[in-house]
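Sample entry follows:

_____
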Amino acid sequence: MIRLTVTALVIGAIGGAIAAWIGLPLAWMLGAMLATLVASLAGVRASVPTRLRQPVLMILGVFIGGSFSPESVERIADWPWSLAAVAALVPVSTWLAARYYTHVAGFDAVTALFSATPGGLSSMVMIGGASGGDERLIALTQGLRVFVIVLLIPLAVGSVTPLSEARAQFDAAAAMSADLAEWSVLVLGVGAGIVVAHLIRLPVPQMTGAMFASAALHLTGASTVLLPDLLLQLALWIVGSSIGAQFAGFDLRTLLTIGRHAAMVAVMMIALAAVVAVGLGALLDLDTLATLLAFVPGGIAEMCLIAVVLDVDPAFVALHHLLRLSLILLLAPVVGAMAKRHALAKLALPDR
């Protein structure tokens, strides 16, 4: 396992370095993602274990929490309509994608439903499989959705507007200037936040627990620790490597066949989110890019990471994705049970 992890990270580092050299947006994530994908399809055995992603999620949560300010908390009162729009967009995009997978890709109804649901890859695989769906197809389509969206969003945004990673830099010197007491408060607070997030079953507890704890500590002034920017670049590298390496084991023919359908669905979700983002941005005076990142279902960690790097209100993006994922995780078991009963009922019908 260590060898597979080192292989994935080395390939990701090479891809990230090349992407940075040619000036690709979010180079260390997109370059690592593309390099590990190509290597996986070429038969290179590589993987990034979940336990390595967990500290990355915690670091990302601390970064997002540190972006909360009294002004951002006050703005939460202005977000109910956009949060409601996210809740409404989940069933709409799921229905459209499920119809595509059923009528165009030829998936069975249960597999199509859980392939179409925009969020929670591991949960959709488990619940979809238990409901009678094809776990391998669900895993592949869900992984491809994240891959395509994370790849296209920075490129699409960069083609429309100059895209600079102009985020306020987290200075390593500022981080080191914090005293031991502040570091202790941050570490203990984040640890407690993650424990609480696990206990109350928040989605992605390593990130959400760290995010809320970091926000509380920074808002109250209990901690002013600023993490060094190097940690964010490391997070980009590891996340990118893990996204690309997840396709190891799939042959090229299967990936191309299913990939074109997953790409169509991902583009459809991006287009739908863009229409809603532009409309809400104009109607509610919201930042269009932040709204787009909040609505596009590219994975909560990945979209929040892009938001942090591009400095487009990570708090806004994180809360909207948290709502989306919470709704999906709450409703998916119920929908799965209904889909399973419906499938069994169809099998029980006599031939006519």
About this structure: The chain has 16 helices and no strands. Residues 164-172 have pLDDT under 50 and may be disordered. The two ends are 54 Å apart (CA to CA).
